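[job 4471] stage=fold_predict status=RUNNING
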Amino acid sequence: MFRKFQNFIFIGLFVIAIAGPMISWSVLSHMNESNPKIMEVLDFDLNEKRSKATMSEPIDLSRVTYEAENYYNDRIPFRSVLISFKRFLDAKIEEPYKANMEGVLLKFFSKKRDSVGIEEDDLEEKTEKFMDDAVDKYLNHGLYKEEIDPYDSTIEFPIKYLNNHKVLVGQSDWLYLNENNIPYYQGINKIATESEIRKHVESYLKLKKMCDKVGKRLVILICPEKEEIYPEYMPTMEIVDEVEVPIDIRDYLIKNTDIQYIYPKEELLKHKKNYLVYKKYDSHWNSIGGFVAANELKKALGFKTENLRDFKLKKEETLDADLAYYGNTSIDSLPMTFKYVFENYKPNHIPERIFVKNPVTLDSFSTHCEQGFDRKVFLIGDSFREALQEFLIKDFKEVYFNTFTNAAEGFIKEEIKRADDIVITLVERNEGIVLPELCKIINFVLEEYQLEINSFLAKNNSQP
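[job 4471] inference complete, writing structure tokens
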């Protein structure tokens, strides 16, 4: 009798565990109609920046259980509270472990290995092989594969000694730039009204008008921040508005002007499925990101684009870690990452690189390639321009690369005047301050160029 009663209790508890959350969630949802603050506390944004899973139409029987599970997991009652609580517990458990236990365990197992007589060389070889396999599994995107998650691993490579608030440590030790980026990421720094956007882009439109007068094409390429492409590794924080400032500007310009303004977020997200497009410990995109952006630039200039799958890629070991340095962090504990190398990107196109001589600077140089498109491109921007260079120097007969810090220097004036196409490329965070100033400087040079043209024409027309 007691056993039967006990079974009833267990069954009742099981039913409550299964049905209780759904019933209580339904009741709270109904109460939320009269008091909206209830769901603000229970069903909040987890900063995932993705759409919830859906069921395919028509139903794919081979994937129906997988889709149903994902669909339910995205709508389970109290999901936001449960995930946040788990993250909190994980962090609290990890802190004392790293502070007190990690070093002790490493010493203990090190002594244990010594006691069983493992040869040092053998141990080092096995450890090196393990780390190589682990890094490959943890970081590397397989080429030309679909629906893969190269970061799905329990192996952790902890970032140690991060001593600077300028850098954020995200999930799985991804590093992100902090400082001014976060208000834009959260949607706090917004251009609120159309009149404010119109005022913001005045210098863009003025430069475009001047380019049209002197027969030059203008393209503005704004590079997405790393957190816009990989938000899943960002620390959890409140998102006020998910639409980034460049999207607001791009939508306004497309609707109201003919200016070429590129913000290649969608294309980068597509390629992210099969390739790594930004660097884990660095704020910049990698060569794949540069290829994608260069393709969008060529499209805007009216030239044929290329398919990434037509090129042979290989991975080479590297450690790009500008954020580790910026955060005053030791990189000794970081594993090696990798970079993509294009083995056959137009091998018969051999460009000549010419550095400017007055002043001599590695940040300003021109390239000449006889097999490229017959255009002279003037490209000026920040460090994100560097990943574009590989895919432009073989595609155009002449390209002049310049950092925006040299924009006011006299030695670039002639290059602006000689160019057929003027390209400004800046990362998102530099658009607000740097881009308007660049537009003004280039516009001033072109106004001077127009006066020279008018003077030349007037002089020649006055001659008998």
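[job 4471] summary: Confidence is low (pLDDT under 50) at residues 109-121, 126-163.
[job 4471] exit 0
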